[in-house]
């Protein structure tokens, strides 16, 4: 509910502002320790990224309520935003976007970690689980860049707005595609952020969609094996439908004005 989200937001913002906050029957404040504020910023940013790779990866709709809180906190407390980006880029290099290359002397295990895989006792996580986590983090990022906390003063610009999404998309399309990963990331990003980007960039955005259809999808196909076609097929049909209908559907779970009255 909107009222519940406001409660959560106010509590986090108060804590970061040095005000005493009640939690689990005790009062805490970042002023109780010289490194208190830095610690809270770090752990909070880490937690936001974990919600992307956990909650959002399983429930796509949850990207929007989490993202609107992240965006608002980022605006009021820029340090949290900087650390959030650092955590996000470490866990999901594709949010940069960046495909790490394996350097000489790097072990396979270390390289897989650089690519974002979880490795425990030399055992690498399943591909499906890896893709799900990356998808959740990209969806959260795509929601953050288009949302603002509705109760802020809105005097300044969004701390990390749609221009960053536009740049992400352009840089993504300049990279050589990877099987499995690229198709999924593009689809997630366009599903969540496409309607906001088309409002902002109009004809330029449609030119980009046309480029994806005519030039970039064939390049993804060239590196995709028959067993990895699922996401690529969904990307193809999404882009084709949007170009045919000349519109990008609003993402599922987007927060409407009525949400804030709940």
Automatic annotation (TrEMBL):
GO terms for cellular component: cytoplasm; nuclear pore cytoplasmic filaments. Keywords: Coiled coil, Cytoplasm, mRNA transport, Nuclear pore complex, Nucleus, Protein transport, Translocation, Transport. It is found in: Cytoplasm; Nucleus, Nuclear pore complex. One of its GO terms (biological process) is poly(A)+ mRNA export from nucleus. GO terms for molecular function: inositol hexakisphosphate binding; phospholipid binding; translation initiation factor binding. Pfam families: GLE1. InterPro entries: GLE1 (IPR012476), GLE1-like_sf (IPR038506). Belongs to the GLE1 family. Required for the export of mRNAs containing poly(A) tails from the nucleus into the cytoplasm. May be involved in the terminal step of the mRNA transport through the nuclear pore complex (NPC). This is mRNA export factor GLE1. It comes from Grallaria varia (variegated antpitta).
